[in-house]
Amino acid sequence: MMLKNRCGWAEYDPVLMEYHDKEWGIPVHDDVKLFEFLTLEGAQAGLSWITILKKREAYRRAFKGFKPRRVADYSNRDIKRLSADPSIIRNRLKIGATVTNARQFLQVQNEFGSFNEYLWRLVEGKPITHHYRSLSSIPARTRESDHLSEDLRKRGFRFVGSTICYAFMQAVGLVNDHTTTCFRYKQV
Out of 72, 82, 96, 145, which could bridge 102 as a Cys pair, Cβ 3.0 to 4.6 Å? Predict the structure, then answer.
């Protein structure tokens, strides 16, 4: 059996391998999926991505399949309830930010027609392909993620610092940061 060369971060756990091989870096244009990734990247702040992936289904249940309109209707009581739910990260600030972000997400949809339209204009509708040979070469943030972070914050979003925004951009395929030795590099 031939082993696949993957990005180094995805080589040690089957959950990471599955995510890397089937999702990471593939361009996403669905608003619900974009809201899911924005939420999960914010939840990941200060934690490992594997922790979030293992709780992903619980997040989907807790946040009604990541339908922004439903999450935007959450009350302080819902935030308190979710803060006691051990199946997700019980950080009240992160949970509250998800509700706030759902409300702001709806405003962006109203302004641009979709969050997808808003987001993809950042890269002129086409993913940026980088040519990094090693993980150590990949930056934690870029000019584009700085711009996205600044604009989202102006719009009232929370847990959207530049590093979180860059991880989001990588996840939803705005940038291709698979290393050049990874089997997914040319596929994506």
Answer: 72
139, 50, 47, 68: which is closest to 110 by C-alpha?
Answer: 68
Residues 114/32, Cβ–Cβ less than 8 Å: no
Provide the pLDDT confidence category of residue 188 given band limits of 50, 70 and 90: confident
Q: pLDDT digits over 30-78, tens only?
A: 999 999 999 999 999 999 999 999 999 999 999 999 999 999 999 999 9
CATH of domain 26-176: 1.10.340.30
Confidence of residue 5 (pLDDT cuts 50, 70, 90): very high
Q: Which helix (H) or strand (E) holds 129?
A: strand 128-129
- Which residues are annotated as catalytic? 19, 41, 49
Output the six-digit token pair for 144: 């584009």
CB atoms within 10 A of CB 59: 22
Helices (H) and strands (E) counted in the chain, each on its own, are: 10, 2
* Token pair listed for 171: 């996840």
Q: What is the pTM of this model?
A: 0.96
Measured between alpha carbons, how far is 96 from 82 in angstroms, rounded to an integer? 10
Tell me if 128 sits within 8 A of 174, measured CB to CB.
yes
